């Protein structure tokens, strides 16, 4: 058995890990500005940082890790920045897919792949197909993703089933609705982390975060490493999750 590079600290109970962690990787641009670098280099630094986070989530037994990589609104950024982000998608999968597959990681892409350029769409589809039978960490990458668009898509899919006679309106419940989301079959988000101190969802997993615990570390994403991840998990474990009930 391989040794975990970053074992859990004593303050984290390995028996009470969040099943599903979602991360809004915020602050690459501000990190680049602080270090007097181009924005593209900030995104690249954030991608380098991501590798250890994924490895550690896999090593410690987190079931699902969802990363907000590229939103539907990100197309409004400068052409230079968009091109840099698109190139990072190719670079990341070309360099990491072998290890991810070897570590039994299953890759799932959340979002509208049809709206991506051909090379990016192809590499994402190949990664999904290659790892589809893996049973370890579910690595979910939100690309060309918007939470509101996902909810509209789910409603449209259910409406088509009603229209075609496959179901009745009365049969639409929370389980049916969740089954039409990109995250169908995954546990709901337990812990949402947004780096850089910003405190908003930014159209990310609006349905899935209904009862998530939110943690907003101050570090910019390229400065957020495995010890900071463990600190967020410890914060999660310190909270009382009541799901709308009262604390006894």
Q: What is the SS-derived class?
A: alpha/beta
Helical stretch count? 7
Question: What string, H for helix and E for strand, traces the elements in order?
Answer: EHHEHEHEHHEEH
Q: Tell me the number of strands.
A: 6
Distance between the termini: 42 Å
What does the radius of gyration come to? 18 Å
Strand portion, in percent?
5-15%
Low-confidence segments: none
Largest sheet descriptor: 6 strands, parallel
Spatial ordering of strands, largest sheet: 3-4-2-1-5-6
Average pLDDT works out at 95
Oligomer: single chain
Give the CA-based shape.
globular
Q: Can you give the helix content as a percent range?
A: 40-55%
List the helices and strands and how they pair.
Layout: E1 20-24, H1 28-34, H2 39-60, E2 64-71, H3 79-102, E3 106-110, H4 118-131, E4 138-145, H5 147-163, H6 174-178, E5 191-194, E6 213-215, H7 226-237
Parallel strand pairs: 1-2, 1-5, 2-4, 3-4, 5-6
Helix pairs in contact: 1-2, 2-3, 3-4
Model description:
By secondary structure, the chain is an alpha/beta fold. Helix content is 41%, strand content 13%. The chain is built from 7 helices and 6 strands, in the order βααβαβαβααββα. It has helices at residues 28-34, 39-60, 79-102, 118-131, 147-163, 174-178, 226-237; strands at residues 20-24, 64-71, 106-110, 138-145, 191-194, 213-215. β3, α4 (118-131) and β4 (138-145) form a beta-alpha-beta unit. The radius of gyration is 18 Å and the shape is globular.
List keywords for this structure.
globular; 41% helix; 248 residues; single chain; alpha/beta; 7 helices; 6-stranded parallel β-sheet
């Amino acid at each position: 058995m391989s040794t975990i590079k970053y074992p859990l600290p004593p303050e984290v109970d390995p028996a009470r890990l969040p099943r599903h962690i979602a991360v809004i990787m915020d602050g690459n641009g501000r990190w680049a500005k602080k270090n007097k670098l181009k924005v593209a280099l900030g995104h690249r630094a954030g991608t380098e940082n991501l590798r250890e986070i994924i490895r550690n989530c896999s090593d410690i037994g987190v079931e699902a890790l969802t990363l907000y990589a590229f939103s539907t609104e990100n197309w409004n950024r400068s052409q230079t920045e968009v091109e840099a982000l698109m190139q990072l998608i190719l670079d990341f999968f070309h360099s990491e897919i072998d290890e991810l597959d070897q570590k039994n990681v299953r890759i799932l892409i959340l979002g509208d792949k049809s709206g991506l350029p051909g090379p990016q769409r192809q590499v994402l589809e190949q990664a999904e197909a290659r790892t589809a039978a893996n049973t370890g960490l579910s690595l979910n990458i939100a690309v060309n993703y918007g939470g509101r668009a996902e909810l509209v898509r789910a409603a449209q899919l259910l409406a088509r089933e009603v229209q075609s006679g496959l179901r009745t309106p009365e049969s639409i419940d929370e389980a049916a609705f969740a089954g039409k989301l990109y995250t169908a079959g995954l546990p709901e988000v337990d812990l949402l982390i947004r780096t850089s101190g910003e405190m908003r969802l930014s159209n990310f997993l609006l349905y899935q975060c209904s009862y998530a615990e939110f943690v907003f570390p101050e570090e910019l994403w390229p400065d957020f490493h495995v010890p900071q991840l463990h600190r967020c998990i410890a914060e999660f474990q310190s909270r009382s999750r009541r799901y709308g009930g009262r604390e006894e």
